[in-house]
User: Which sequence fits this backbone?
């Protein structure tokens, strides 16, 4: 009770949310199912009514479903899109009451205390909800009671309305699984003869607490109202976008840059308040003829400094066709990352920031994916001891761990004419006659047997560092199993 008003809670369950979301955009006549890979097998994730009437059920393998129903049509499920659609429904439900939260993966919970009279009472409100959802192509099960637990139980196991103050009478015939307990606990209670909530209410509490712990009795008290359970409203994620309507159309690049500067200042302030930084920005320009043009910006590192971001828009804005003028600007951070506040000192320099800005400027021209850096790889094979990754999406390695020096220049093995297992005193390489001055080695490297590589089929390699009298410092190797000498690298 709150100020003499009895609390009332509505629970909405969408039993076929995933499939009906897809069918809203692509109509299918006949059985339809969404599949999801679970436990190394494609299983039925969600069905439509026609598929359920064919005897199919959630969780069965897709192969068995096709055997039972050869005309079954299917698509791959997208749980992330289903959750996004559920959040859209959550915003829609705020038209009935301000306190709306998510209930699992397929439901909503609403605290309609003091709101039902706005639509003519509880029955009129529920009828209005159901009719609007049906017009949208969504099936729904609705439960209304004094508590959140009771409303959930009615929505899932006995769709209906529990009159105010009569929660226990409305729940006594429902199975114990309606208390939001796990399936194993519900099965154990049924084996003990406690099949309904009414049986559980009449049973002694002490033995139940010793056998099942506090969870069972807490769920029972929450459903009956003996223990309070709040409805936490769903807080949507922050939306990083700012727009500005102009009283008069503009067309000069300097004017557009001035407008972008104002938007960027407000957007970066919002990012700073959330300790976030933008990796991708999109500036949308609307012309007076209702045409739209966009300037996209991708950064090497997340930023929220307007003075560093604004100059990067100049190249894209210079190519914009303003037509008869631009009357609306919209700036959005389409990709954000965490950027916590860091302690700075007078001895720190901005070398890294300057490098990131340089990568961002070059990325605008040639693409961030084309600016690469070398990173160490966990392999003793020379060709596999490094990888190349985009600088914008990788961090530099702390250091390259190596026991022996490696050449600066590495190239495919080039054969030379020589005999014996020791480095030759004289040899020709790339049309040059070279004389060995000093040789250091050997360093034996064995092939990685778990990987197939045609270049290493000759087996072991004995590597030598050879300094020639002509000044060339080469990396040679000898293959004992298939005798031969090769040059593979050169030291600086």
Assistant:
């Amino acid at each position: 009770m709150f100020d003499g008003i009895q609390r009332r809670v509505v629970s909405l369950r969408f039993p076929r949310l995933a499939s009906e979301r897809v069918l809203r955009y692509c109509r299918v006549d006949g059985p339809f199912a969404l599949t999801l890979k679970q436990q190394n097998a494609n299983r039925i994730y969600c069905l439509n009514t026609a598929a359920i009437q064919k005897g199919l059920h959630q969780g069965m393998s897709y192969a068995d479903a096709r055997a039972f129903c050869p005309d079954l049509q299917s698509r791959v499920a997208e749980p992330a899109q289903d959750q996004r659609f559920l959040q859209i429904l959550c915003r829609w439900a705020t038209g009935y009451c301000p306190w709306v939260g998510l209930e699992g993966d397929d439901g909503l919970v609403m605290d309609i205390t003091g709101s039902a009279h706005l639509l003519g009472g509880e029955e009129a409100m529920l009828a209005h909800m159901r009719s609007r959802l049906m017009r949208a192509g969504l099936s729904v099960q609705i439960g209304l009671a004094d508590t959140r637990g009771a409303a959930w139980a009615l929505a899932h196991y006995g769709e209906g309305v529990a009159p105010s103050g009569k929660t226990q009478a409305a729940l006594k015939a429902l199975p114990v699984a309606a208390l939001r307990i796990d399936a194993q606990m519900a099965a154990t209670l049924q084996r003990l003869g406690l099949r309904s909530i009414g049986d559980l209410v009449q049973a002694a509490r002490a033995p139940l607490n010793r056998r099942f712990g506090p969870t069972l009795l807490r769920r029972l008290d929450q459903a009956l109202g003996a223990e309070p359970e709040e409805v936490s409203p769903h807080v949507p994620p922050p939306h990083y976008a700012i727009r500005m309507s102009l009283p008069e159309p503009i067309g000069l690049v300097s004017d557009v840059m001035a407008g972008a500067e104002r938007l960027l200042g407000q957007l970066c302030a919002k990012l700073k308040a959330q300790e976030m930084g933008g990796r991708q920005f999109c500036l949308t320009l609307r012309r007076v003829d209702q045409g739209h043009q966009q300037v996209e910006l991708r950064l090497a590192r997340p930023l929220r400094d307007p003075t560093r971001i604004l100059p990067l828009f100049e190249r894209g804005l210079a190519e914009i066709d303003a037509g008869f003028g631009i009357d609306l600007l919209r700036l959005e951070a389409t990709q954000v990352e965490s950027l916590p506040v860091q302690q700075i000192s007078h001895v720190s320099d901005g070398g890294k920031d300057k490098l990131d800005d340089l990568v961002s400027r070059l990325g605008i021209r040639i693409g961030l994916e084309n600016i690469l850096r070398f990173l160490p790889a966990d392999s003793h094979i020379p060709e596999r001891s490094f990888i190349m990754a985009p600088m914008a999406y990788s961090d530099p390695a702390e250091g390259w761990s190596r026991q022996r020096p490696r050449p600066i220049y590495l190239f495919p093995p080039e054969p030379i004419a020589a005999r014996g297992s020791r480095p030759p005193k004289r040899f020709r390489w790339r049309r040059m006659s070279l004389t060995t001055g000093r040789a250091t080695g050997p360093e034996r490297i064995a092939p990685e047997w778990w990987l197939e590589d045609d270049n290493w089929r000759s087996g072991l390699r004995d590597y030598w560092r050879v300094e020639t009298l002509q000044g060339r410092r080469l990396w040679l190797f000898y293959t004992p199993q298939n005798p031969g000498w090769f040059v593979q690298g050169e030291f600086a």
About this structure: The chain has three domains: 1-236, 241-338, 409-490. The longest strand covers residues 432-445. The longest helix spans residues 253-273.
